[in-house]
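Quick one, tokens below:
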């Protein structure tokens, strides 16, 4: 059974979380790790560790923005993918909120993009029509073409 724990302290973000983060997202789609740790002090930001039998298997980050929640990053480690953990985590997130959840995916031009969009559509997310460009997370990084997905409505 998976367990989700909200992590509030820099010491909670162990090396495994960083490895999953850096393996799951290319440099242009992620913050520098020090920035992630610093965000723990922001009351609107939430870093949630995903565990199976007390072993870290993934994480997700949320921004609570008033009328909606924005999921910035969500990843299950490579060795645990395909076991249904991502669906279980997303179901728990969707059950435990009362406002829309919005997330972004890379454009559907890549194999991984198509696969990711299909996963979220199975979870009842709706893909928006337009493409927007995510601003660079830091100097030296590039903007990234993304699409928004939302649940329960566009």
């Amino acid at each position: 059974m998976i367990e989700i724990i909200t992590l509030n302290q820099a010491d909670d973000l162990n090396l495994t979380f960083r490895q999953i983060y850096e393996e799951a997202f290319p440099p242009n789609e992620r913050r520098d790790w020090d920035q992630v740790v610093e965000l723990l002090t922001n009351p609107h930001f939430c870093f949630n560790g995903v565990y199976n039998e007390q072993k870290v298997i993934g994480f997700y980050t949320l921004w609570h923005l008033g009328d909606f929640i924005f999921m910035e990053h969500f990843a299950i480690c490579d060795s645990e993918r395909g076991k249904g953990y991502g669906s279980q985590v997303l179901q728990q997130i969707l059950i435990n909120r009362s406002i829309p959840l919005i997330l972004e995916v890379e454009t559907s031009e890549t194999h991984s993009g198509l696969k990711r969009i299909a996963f979220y559509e199975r979870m009842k997310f709706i893909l928006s029509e337009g493409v927007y460009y995510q601003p660079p997370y830091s100097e030296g990084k590039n903007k990234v073409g993304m699409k928004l997905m939302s649940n329960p409505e566009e």
